[in-house]
Amino acid sequence: MKKNNKKKNDDQKVSVSDFLNQELVDKLKAVKKDLTVEQQEKEAELERRKIEERKQREKNKSFEELLGESNLSWKDFK
Predict the structure, then answer these.
(1) Where would one find coiled-coil regions in this protein (predicted)?
(2) Is 39 contained in some domain?
(3) What is the spatial distance between Cα 62 and Cα 33, in angstroms, rounded to a whole number?
């Protein structure tokens, strides 16, 4: 029974990288790292673009929109 448990533990420790060439594993890890960096750059660019669009919308608001967003009331200045 003890031998059976040891064999199961050995089977669980086996990974895909054990069956692949080390160079191939290294290349796959490099590709994964590159894709992660690329994804982070895309997310940063998207966030920067959203901020820029928000600034442009704020800059191009009409007087009516600015007045509507204002919390001032003419009644306070009577």
Answers:
(1) 21-61
(2) yes
(3) 46
Supply the pLDDT for residue 1: 47
Query: In which domain, by residue range, is 49 found?
Result: 20-70
User: What does the block give as tokens for 15?
Assistant: 């990974």
pLDDT in tens, 6-17: 555 555 677 776
Question: Tokens 């050995």 identify what position?
Answer: 10
- Domain for residue 9, yes or no? no
Place of tokens 């031998």: 3
Residue 49: inside a domain, yes or no? yes
In a domain, 35, yes or no: yes
User: CA-based angle 68:72:77, to the nearest 5?
Assistant: 130
